[in-house]
Amino acid sequence: MSWDGLYASAFEKVRERIGKVGKVLLAYNTNIDAVHYLKSGDLEERIRRTGIDEVLKYSEELPENIKSVPQLLGSILWSVKRGKAAELFVESCPVRFYMKRWGWNELRMGGQVGIMANLLGGVYGVPVIAHVPQLSRLQAGLFKNGPIYVPKLVDGEVKLVHPREFGGEEESCLHHIYEFPRGFRVLDFEAPRENRFIGAADDYNTTLFIRDEFREYFDEIASNAELAVVSGLQALTAENYAEPFEMIRANLEVLNERNVPVHLEFAFTPDETVRKAILDLLPKFWSVGLNEVELASIMEVMGERKLAEKLLADDPVDPVAVTEAMFKLAEKTGVKRIHFHTYGYYLALTEYRGEFVRDAILFAALAAAAKAKLGDVPSINEVVEAMDVPVNKKVESVEETLVREYGMNEGMAEVNGYQLAFIPTKIVEKPKSTVGIGDTISSSAFVGEFAIRP
Ligand code: AMP
Ligand code: GLC
Questions:
Q1: Pocket perturbation via mutation, ligand 1, pick of 294, 394, 437, 443 by most ligand atoms within 8 A of CB
Q2: What is the pLDDT of residue 61?
Q3: Residues spanned by the domain of 91
Q4: Tens of pLDDT, residues 395-437
Q5: Are residues 415 and 328 in the same domain?
Q6: How many domains does the chain have?
Q7: Is the CB–ligand 2 distance for residue 175 below 6 Å?
Q8: Is 431 near ligand 1, meaning CB less than 6 Å away?
Q9: Residue 234: pLDDT above 90?
Q10: What is the 3-state secondary structure (H, E, C) of the chain?
């Protein structure tokens, strides 16, 4: 069958059954994304007013976090120059105020949990229980209608309510997302591809604050979850990770005891100590989702430097290096499923076999194309419409390599006792924005897979 044929049939299978998946628990990071589409003239004027030399310093090397306006503008330039995503904590109140006054084009749901809750609950109709560290009115208003719940303590009892019924007057955790298209020019720089820089004006998600409801009543909250997704560990540091990790470990033990498959949505974690700690925690997960930069960063802490370099050397990313890295990770940690995504293709390495693994990642690629095109997935109709986006031709060589190396057929192969599934994705030429596509891919694939398992 052609890839278009496989896409169409996978979509039908998942659409028919995804509404039947039971409760999915989502923890821990939810925030508000203030999305700002950068304008070259405006950015340049701000840089000049702030002092070019001071700003340029930070475009060479990112600061650890943002304490001044030159650091903010320089970090944006760092991303533009390389076409790479970066995210830093904004510590300073005056800089937070500067960003607020600079403004934004739209407010959107943010954080892996928030984005997945709206997609799974609001679009696919899968019931979700979400951890929302701070529920301000603004945050609550960004949740879609649908079976989305947060725990609320009422007279010492946990009730599950829609976030808008929570009645929280808590803080707003604002992440300023500075998006730029491919070819965006400022000073002498030109962005080689579209991407974003994120300034997180947020004291809760950045330290993985866990609410009392989740600390004290986790057993009850998780009691009828069928699946779980964990995310939000990325901003922790060697100084502050120990306490939240203890809580996460305890939560995972509860889920493991109940045989709830848990997916870890890995995100780029700059701190090496934290990355190592995540690697140690991986045996408690069923599944993990990551991109090439994230996989390379794990290979580094596993002492596989050469392999890490190979993962970042080519475009499209060398699929044999990816497969080798996935094997190493699966063997070291025992995770049953690794879902790798990169610009142009996805791979899934699983301990188990079946076309449903490939079909679920096909479905995820449609959802990703819809998200890239519109910035949001308003309903399942937009996912169907993404069928018109052409399949990426640039990765034909990737498929040829997989056929040659592993005897891949229609995206399926058996390698070293594991199943390797491959798909070329649909690439939207001029995406509206880039933030949150990875979360859309991983949650659609993980939950989609459970929907269509035989
Ligand atoms: P992440 O880097 O985890 O946020 O995930 C980004 C992923 O989104 C990439 O690995 C691609 O698979 C996908 N992606 C990025 N840009 C596009 C696009 N224009 N069209 C479709 N998918 C995209
Ligand atoms: C990170 C960011 C958040 C964004 C999300 C998208 O969690 O902090 O602002 O919405 O990534 O994947």
A1: 437
A2: 94
A3: 33-108+172-201
A4: 999 999 999 999 999 999 999 999 999 999 999 999 998 899 9
A5: yes
A6: 2
A7: yes
A8: yes
A9: yes
A10: CCHHHHHHHHHHHHHHHHHHCCEEEEECCCEEEEEEECCHHHHHHHHHHHCHHHHHHHHHCCCCCECCHHHHHHHHHHHHHHCCCEEEEECCHHHHHHHHHHCCCEEEEECHHHHHHHHHHHHCCCCEEECCCCCCHHHHHCCCCCCEEEEEEECCEEEEECHHHCCCCCCCCEEEEEEECCCCEECCEECCCCEEEEEEECCCHHHCCCCHHHHHCHHHHCCCEEEEEECCCCCCCCCCCHHHHHHHHHHHHHHHHCCCCEEEECCCCCCHHHHHHHHHHHHHCCEEEECHHHHHHHHHHCCCHHHHHHHHHCCCCCHHHHHHHHHHHHHHHCCCEEEEEECCEEEEEECCCCHHHHHHHHHHHHHHHHHHHHCCCCCHHHHHHHHHCCECHHHHHHHHHHHHHHCCECCEEEECCEEEEEEECECCCCCCCCCCHHHHHHHHHHHHHHHHCC
Looking from the CA of residue 435, the nearest atom of ligand 1 is: 4
Shared domain check, 287 and 182? no
52 alpha carbon – ligand 1 mean position (Å):
32
Ligand 1 pocket residue status of 368, Cβ below 6 Å? yes
Looking at the fold, whether 83 and 193 belong to one and the same domain comes out as yes
Kindly state whether residues 264 and 227 are assigned to the same domain.
yes
Mean pLDDT of the chain: 96
Q: Report whether pLDDT(168) > 90.
A: no
**Residues 180 and 264 grouped into a single domain:** no
* Mean predicted confidence (pLDDT) in 21-26: 98
Atom of ligand 2 nearest to the CA of 114: 10
182 and 239 part of one domain? no
What is the per-residue pLDDT across 382-392, written as a single tens digit (0 to 9) for each? 999 999 999 98
Closest-lying ligand 2 atom to the alpha carbon of residue 231: 7
Out of 28, 112, 341, give the residue to mutate to test ligand 2, the one with the largest number of ligand atoms within 8 Å of its CB: 112
Which CATH number fits the domain that encloses residue 396? 3.40.1190.20
CB distance 111 to ligand 2 below 6 Å: yes
- Predicted confidence at residue 37, as pLDDT, reads 97
CA of 211 to the centre of ligand 1 (A): 31
Ligand that lies nearest to the alpha carbon of residue 199, given by its number in the listed order? 2
Statement to judge: residues 102 and 219 lie in one domain = no
Under the banding of pLDDT at 50, 70 and 90, the label for residue 109 is very high
Examine the domain organization and report whether 276 and 415 are in the same domain: yes
Model pLDDT for residues 308-321, shown as the tens digit of each residue: 999 999 989 999 99
pLDDT at 406: 98
The closest-lying atom of ligand 2 relative to the alpha carbon of residue 234 is 7
